[in-house]
Amino acid sequence: MRLLTVNVVEELIPGPKETGWTAIDKRPQVGRVRVGELGLAGDSVCDVDNHGGLDQAVYAYAEEDARWWSEQLGREIPSGLFGENLRTEGLDLTNALIGEVWRLGDEVEVQVRAPRIPCVTFQHRMGIPGWVKRFHQAQRPGVYFKVVKTGTIAAGDQVTVVSRPEHEVTVGVMFEAQDSAKMQGMLDSGVDLMDELRETAQRVANRASTPGSTPSATQ
């Protein structure tokens, strides 16, 4: 399990949102890159209302999922095309548990916070009509991380899973197959959650006690 590349913004490019620009164009870096609480040195965020911050400081996408997309689309998916800061190898990101902690190299530790929700900027980047829906349906969202310990990382660094919380909500469950019992289990576990995710989990968990509801539901 390792980092294939570490990516930061190459240049701001025109985007479809009111900000006018997007920092989605990430490219692999040579050498070690410092990771702070708000992300990688040299990186940038344009739409600060919907991206970035402590809970979305770093975004990772798996090489295995990129290869799958390459086959589906008949084109290469070079590292950084999806706006990811990290391209990983040997890690099943979709089945990572919300709240589990990884060590990147010898110094940096990050916590799994949430799946990536595709937006119009991502669709504009790909130039594929209906891309948001297609990406969602594929259920290969990648992972947003919170930085727990700062330091430096580089391509080739090993990735170690340091700890896993005692619940069953994976990135995939949170992204698509939202199960009320699993959501309640996550809430009961006491794992640290970002506010938006906690609200979603509580809403889904409440379905179990709503008259006429089914034990689980998919959104």
Automatic annotation (TrEMBL):
- List where the protein spans the membrane: none
What range(s) does the MOSC domain occupy?
27-162
On the tree of life, the source organism's domain of life is: Bacteria
Entries under Gene3D superfamilies matching the protein? PK beta-barrel domain-like
Name of this protein: MOSC domain-containing protein
Its lineage reads:
Bacteria, Bacillati, Actinomycetota, Actinomycetes, Propionibacteriales
